[in-house]
Amino acid sequence: MSTGDAVSGWDDWRQARLDRLRGPSSPLALTGTHWFDDELTLDGVPGHWVAGGSGGSGGVTLAASATDDVRVDGELLDGTAAIVSDLALTPSDVRAGPLRLRLIDRDGVLAVRVYDPAGPAASGFSGLDVFHFDPSWVLPARFEPFEATRQVVVPNADGVDRPLPLGGTVTFARHGTEINLQVEVDEETGEMQAVFADLTSRSPDPDRRAYRFRFVNFPPPDADGATVADLNQAFLPPCAFNEFFVCPFPPPGNTVDLAVEAGERAARW
């Protein structure tokens, strides 16, 4: 691929990323994450959530009347419906007027996330600060799978330690320095994702400083384990846009001892 094609592809990736961030269920639209044990009713949001009911992931039901204008998977709710959490391949699509509601399950603890496309974070967002595209950050890499998925407990942005399922290591080199990142592996697509930190988070230069950690995806490896590490596509975690997310911090070994001056740096308001 020529440098011009690579830059064009990066521009397309950046535009698609901005389009997603401005979408109705993006991190910017989140206005609250509401945890519950048995029941939940939200101020100003119609519907009553009950854990332990029939059906749904974790047995969760949602009750509402037709006048509440709550729709589950496109159907007006007048009574109760089983709600499927984000752990499912196809979570329930719950809407209350312009709001989107998502049931999440974190190690058996349930919450409802409320997304408002007219919320304060979404309406004030003005873009992303990024490093300039650098072809030297597009590197051949190799995936080495673990014998079995490892559940590594890491701190999360909300102060709670949670297991992070890691399926192997992606290894690549930058100017002779080997970098090893432990990755999650999507069982359906084979795509891999790493949470990593690097020295840019401590840069004294604000124009070269990045958020305290970032994510990066890797294409599915071929039969020999070969893949590509394109750090120009390193991106900010959801908690960089909104305090209501519970992003995992980098696992041990995923803090890189160099400045990864590539990818997204910070969100702008």
- The tally of beta strands, per DSSP, is 18
* Backbone shape: globular
- Widest sheet, order of strands: 1-10-9-8-5-6
Class by helix and strand content? mainly beta
Averaging pLDDT over every residue, what do you get? 92
Strand content: 35-45%
InterPro entries: DUF1684 (IPR012467)
Protein name: DUF1684 domain-containing protein
Pfam families: DUF1684
Organism: Angustibacter luteus
Task: Briefly summarize what is shown.
This protein is 9% helix and 43% strand.
Can you describe this structure?
InterPro entries: DUF1684. This is DUF1684 domain-containing protein. It holds the Pfam family DUF1684. With 269 residues, this protein is mainly β. It has two helices and 18 strands. The protein folds into two domains: 27-123, no CATH class; 126-268, no CATH class. It is 9% helix and 43% strand. The strands form four sheets. The protein has a six-stranded antiparallel beta sheet. The chain is globular and about 65 Å long. The mean pLDDT is 92.
What is the strand and helix layout of this fold?
Blueprint: H1 3-21, E1 30-36, E2 39-42, E3 45-51, E4 60-64, E5 70-72, E6 75-76, E7 79-83, E8 94-96, E9 99-106, E10 109-115, H2 120-124, E11 127-130, E12 138-155, E13 161-174, E14 177-185, E15 192-196, E16 214-218, E17 226-230, E18 264-268
Antiparallel strand pairs: 1-10, 2-3, 3-4, 4-7, 5-6, 5-8, 8-9, 9-10, 11-18, 12-13, 12-17, 13-14, 14-15, 15-16
